[in-house]
Amino acid sequence: MDITVNILLTIATAATPLLIAAIGELVVERSGVLNLGVEGMMIMGAVCGFGAAYLTGSPWIGVLAAIVAGALFSLLFAFMALTLATNQVATGLSLTILGLGLSGMIGTNFVGLPGVRLPNLYIPGLSDLPIVGKLLFGQDPLFYASIALVFAVSWFLFRTRKGLMLRSIGDSHSSAHALGIPVIRYRYLAVMFGGACAGLAGGHLSLVYTPQWVENMTAGRGWIALALVVFASWRPLRVLAGAYIFGAVWIGQLHAQAFGIPVPSQFLSALPYLATIVVLVLISRNKRLTMMNTPASLGQAFVPDR
Amino acid sequence: MRIELVKRPERSKLFSALSPFIAFALTIIAGAILFAALGKNPLTALYTYFIDPITQVWQLHELAIKAAPLILIAVGLAVCYRANVWNIGAEGQFVMGAVAGSVLPVMFPETVGWWVLPAMLLMGAAGGAAYASIPAFLKTRFNTNEILTSLMLVYVAQLFLDWLVRGWWKDPAAYNFPQSVQFNPSAVLPELAPMSGRANWGFIFAIIAAVLVWLMLSKMLKGFEIRVLGSSPRAGRFAGFQQSHVVFFAFLISGALAGLAGISEVSGAIGQLQPSISPGYGFTAIIVAFLGRLNPLGIVAAGLVLALTYLGGEAAQTALGVSDKVARVFQGMLLFFVLASDTLIHYRIRIAGLGAKSSEAA
């Protein structure tokens, strides 16, 4: 029983950064913007989170720094893609390239240093309950934050007026503009929310998942988060499901490696990436489903006519 | 104060030509600020980074070695991006090309003869093309986003190479080092001018590829088809052009060129397979493609510039003691500034809100 609980706990820990990054990107894409810089914003969050926590000794300051770093870094993308109407695919890529480089430079002196781990929640009594205690009341704070984020985003998008406006911008920015909705302002805020989430996801990696700084430690998770949004056909609750499936694949291959399954470890390490491809194929082969759910002006630059 | 874009009636020829230079100038300025922030004298640092690495003949050879794969890959990517096909997995196609091309020298190391090298190059190109055909197939058959699939395949290719050089293809005589056997001399890409430096035939391949693809894009029907479908898919369909054919064509060309770059790098500059055979050429080539304005001839120049950022990064590490990651930062900034300058081609920029008068005047 203990083993099962432990595996479930590690799955949750592996799924949380994917979930946080994906739910942020979902809001960005719902507003009609495709930011391929998730990996770059995530790694910036990871390095800044680690650095701030190490220098101050407080993991909470680390979390804050990760969020701020992600949001600020995303502003660069927002300025380019929204104000200067550059190609979103290329701009997102350059954000990722720049993020990987900058984080490497910032983190040069952090390599090999002991990290500060964000402590798990502990509620006397409740956390000591068998099985459910650890699963429900004994995880890291960002786990709860990620679940809360999913429901908050879902409520915002589908139950509030502002959420409706955001979705309408994503579906037709010119109509939204004609109705007087400030398209660019909404998109700026959406991109920054996505950046903050990606930064927080990176912070989870360097403050909870493996509390240390390793170059390129995001290892493609930012890209998997992007795939998750497609997988979820832009619906928050499906992102939750998808993130946990991917967390399970990620943990499953690690356990398989530890158990000494007679398959080369590299093949097992490739599984999450291959699973991403398979899942994308399964989802996208259903043309009607993707057509219906994809925000119609996703990835298109908007320049208001005056 | 607000920045507004005003659409130009037609694209500006002036800024079309100027934008790479503006981008480069802005990168230099940003680089100076970056070095100053790191506590280095900006002028000395920039000299160390951009001038010092190309003052001697052997260094120019090193520049050509770095530029060759960048140009080869970027020329292929230009075909893709012109066709609005987003292949960002060239790094994986590069690796798979290197693997496929190494089958002969690694598994049959005794084979010698004039035909070995051409066969390796062909197999390398075929390997890259075959690997690139996966995202092309998934896109045309299942409508799967090629950005994500081609990128995921990069990780898979890197892990596959890692397994090969630590497992099946490990040189038994290498004291457990993860590497393949050294290629025998007839499997090594010859150097161009061994007296003065290490540059090999890879650079010549790059120039030939650039010229051929330029001819294809500007003079042949296929090139026209690519440009039409890329800029206006609807018009392309009316003309009877097949979207799926162009997707395959673009992926196969860019995969083959990336694969050729991979095997050239392994048989030329490295001489054996190792766990890591590329300092991110496949990703840097994306920047090269954009800096070269998706024009193969411009890409040759852009490839040399980006190759210089690699050399400068190494020089900055040894001479100034800054992280060699500074190269990646320069590359990222360069792409940002290129994209930003490209805005000027289609739009005029107006600073609004300084007062109603000024916006009327503009």
UniProtKB/TrEMBL annotation, chain A:
Pfam family, one: BPD_transp_2
Disulfide bond is among the record's keywords: no
Location relative to the cell: Cell membrane
Organism lineage: Bacteria, Pseudomonadati, Pseudomonadota, Alphaproteobacteria, Hyphomicrobiales
Primary site of residence: membrane
CDD domains: TM_PBP1_transp_TpRbsC_like
Record has Kinase as a keyword: no
Record-given protein name: ABC transporter permease
Stretches that traverse the bilayer: 6-28, 33-54, 60-82, 89-111, 142-158, 188-207, 213-232, 239-259, 265-283
